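Postdoc handover notes: sequence design on the structure in folder B. Input tokens:
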């Protein structure tokens, strides 16, 4: 079927860049939704956005897709009498839909069978349907903030000035809020403001480019990044890559032109992160650094004009950045006059949470947890860790962090270093919020890891204690993300601490009567996080189920080691037959506690030899588990396979003598208990 190009452009006042990324996606989704609803046959639908326009381009067939509509009628038992003759209900239904009784279909629905009229729907020409589709599309576009502009009834993110709509180079006629669709567009607001005709919709992108508008965001992004890198290279520097900033400036401009600027060298005395934040946050400049990662006094700004206007842009950019840097220097110099330790008293005046006390009380809780962790995991750094934990939140009172909250922790690290505190403390303060998200880098030191871990543990314990655990999609305190951070820290640092004991310590700061219940809820919460994390790492479902119970009672880093051991074990030729032997054990092993095996009650050689071998391998298995050698422990356990099978084949477990039966069940239970020190092998398929 012949197709033609559909072109829709909604021209507006400047739309905030933060809204445009989602609007491109939404516009395409809405078009696909309405195309399906109106049976339009489309291909290669693309959407674009600049600050002044939202654009859709798609190939659409000339006619709708043919369709057959199902119209459900009366139940068959009401449509025909006992003789099988149609009732008035059936006749009326057929007549209404222009069909004979014999043309009606019968279909099941629920517990009944119904008459169904299959009515063909006419396939209209696409050009007849598009006005309604495009009108619906525009009216369905939503933004985080929309309002009515002037006397308009249309709610939109910014005032709409024009609507270009063509199909096969012909106007698609419709009207929204007094704005009639046209076949004209406009170029750059200042460089090509006059309206012009779009005679060939296939040349739309090039036509706009000739009028100083690069409509494709990906092309603008490429121009920005390539141009900025080239300018950086011209001064022997490299761009400080920032995807978030790149995305933002891409949607700030229609005709990007990177411009190189500079600032006085004296400002390089300020912390690197502070300079970058000022340039990025206030001015949307890209910072440049040398080959050693040290900041240079150059920057790149992305202008929205032609190259021949660069000098004016550069001078303006250099002029406005100086007062920003001066403000930053003032805050920084003022902050350094107060020691971090002296700010502790001020933390007592800042409420962290009405039920959790002040920031000072939170700092004391973090320090208590950190001291406990450091004592067990890095005792030689215990003093530095505890000091860092206590000072962790002091930079929240600094002028720089109040102005730039994203620099919390980082500035504390700088202030600590300038005070002469140890590098371990300074690094711990700067890394205390890592990892901030899944996949983020981890603290580089034990002190940083312990402080970060302790802060997250306190947050989780505090909100669970108050009954504010995440529910459904609601997670206002980002507790799921913090739990993943805890898992990453414990796993990568290989800290020999269990989730259970960590939360028992974290909750010691609160006087609650249901501590055991809250700890249980937290352990379960972590198990729910661990399951998908381990699945995403490629481990089989059944193997995960076999090791997940250890999340409560064993260090988390051992879970992957157990899983790797199970993977290796499954490659063994005898693994399947060994699992069958263990299955025999699990099928009959008592659930309740049993007394130790009484050797005087062992009557048959099969049970005696099995007992001797179990007694022999048990200390060796325990020793291997102490060294986290789970595969070796499994291999040793496999040596019991033939003895287990002979025992079951030759010995009657359920002896009439209750003492003998109980003794044999005790032997079986000892084998099960030994295996379950490694994994719950009953979960393996």
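Designed sequence:
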């Amino acid at each position: 079927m012949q197709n033609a190009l559909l072109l829709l452009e909604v021209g507006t006042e400047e739309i905030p860049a933060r809204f445009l990324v989602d609007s491109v996606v939404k516009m395409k989704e809405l078009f696909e939704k309405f195309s399906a609803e109106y049976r339009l046959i489309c291909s290669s639908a693309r959407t674009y956005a600049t600050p002044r326009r939202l654009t859709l381009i798609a190939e659409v067939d000339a006619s709708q897709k043919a369709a057959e509509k199902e119209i459900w009628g009366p139940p068959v038992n009401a449509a025909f009498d006992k003789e099988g003759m149609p009732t008035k209900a059936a006749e009326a239904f057929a007549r209404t839909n222009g069909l004979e009784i014999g043309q009606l279909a019968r279909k099941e629905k629920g517990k009944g069978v119904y008459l169904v009229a299959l009515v063909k729907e006419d396939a209209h020409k696409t050009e007849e349907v598009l006005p309604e589709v495009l009108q619906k599309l525009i009216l369905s576009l939503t933004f985080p903030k929309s309002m009515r502009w002037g006397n308009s009834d249309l709610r939109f993110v910014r005032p709409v000035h024009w609507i270009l709509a063509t199909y096969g180079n012909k106007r698609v006629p419709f009207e929204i809020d007094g704005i009639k669709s046209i076949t004209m567009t406009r170029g750059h607001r200042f460089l090509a403001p006059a309206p012009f005709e779009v005679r060939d919709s296939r040349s739309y992108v090039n036509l706009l480019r000739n009028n100083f508008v690069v409509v494709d965001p990906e092309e603008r992004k490429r121009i920005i990044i390539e141009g900025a890198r080239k300018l950086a290279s011209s001064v022997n520097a490299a761009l400080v890559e920032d995807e978030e900033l790149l995305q933002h400036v891409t949607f700030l401009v229609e005709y990007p032109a990177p411009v190189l600027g500079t600032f006085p060298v004296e400002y390089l005395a300020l912390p690197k992160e502070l300079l970058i934040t000022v340039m990025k946050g206030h001015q949307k400049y890209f910072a440049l650094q040398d080959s050693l990662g040290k900041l240079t006094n150059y920057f790149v700004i992305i202008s929205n004009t032609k190259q021949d206007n660069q000098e004016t842009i550069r001078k303006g950019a250099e002029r406005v950045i100086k007062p920003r840097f001066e403000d930053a220097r003032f805050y920084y110099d003022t902050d350094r006059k107060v020691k971090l330790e002296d700010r502790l008293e001020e933390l007592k005046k800042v409420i962290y949470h009405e039920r959790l006390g002040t920031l000072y009380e939170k700092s004391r809780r973090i320090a208590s947890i950190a001291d406990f962790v450091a004592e067990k995991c890095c005792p030689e750094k215990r003093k530095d860790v505890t000091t860092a934990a206590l000072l962790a939140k002091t930079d929240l009172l600094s002028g720089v962090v109040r102005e730039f909250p994203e620099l919390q922790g980082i500035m504390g690290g700088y202030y600590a270093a300038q005070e002469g505190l140890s590098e371990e403390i300074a690094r711990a303060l700067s890394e205390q919020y890592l990892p901030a998200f899944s996949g983020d880098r981890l603290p580089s030191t034990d002190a940083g890891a312990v402080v970060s871990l302790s802060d997250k543990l306190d947050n989780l314990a505090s909100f669970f204690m108050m009954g504010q655990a995440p529910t459904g999609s609601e997670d206002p305190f980002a507790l799921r993300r913090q739990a993943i951070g805890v898992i990453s820290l414990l796993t990568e640092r290989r800290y020999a601490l269990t989730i259970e004991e960590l939360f028992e310590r974290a909750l010691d700061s609160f006087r609650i009567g249901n501590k055991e219940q809250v700890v249980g809820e937290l352990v379960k919460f972590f198990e729910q996080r661990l399951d998908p994390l381990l699945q995403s790492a490629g481990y089989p479902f059944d193997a995960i189920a076999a090791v997940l119970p250890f999340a409560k009672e064993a260090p988390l880093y051992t879970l992957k080691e157990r899983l790797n051991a199970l993977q290796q074990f499954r490659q063994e030729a005898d693994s399947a037959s060994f699992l069958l032997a263990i299955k025999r054990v699990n099928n009959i092993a008592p659930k309740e506690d049993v007394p130790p095996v009484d050797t005087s009650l062992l009557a048959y050689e099969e049970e005696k030899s099995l007992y001797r071998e179990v007694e022999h391998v048990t200390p060796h298995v325990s020793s291997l588990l102490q060294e986290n050698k789970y595969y070796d422990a499994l291999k040793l356990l496999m040596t019991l396979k033939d003895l287990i099978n002979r025992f079951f084949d030759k010995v009657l477990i359920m002896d009439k003598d209750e003492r003998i039966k109980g003794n044999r069940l005790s032997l079986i239970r000892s084998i099960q208990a030994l295996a379950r020190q490694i994994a719950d092998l009953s979960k393996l398929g």
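Context for whoever picks this up: The chain has a mean pLDDT of 94. Don't rerun without checking with the PI first.
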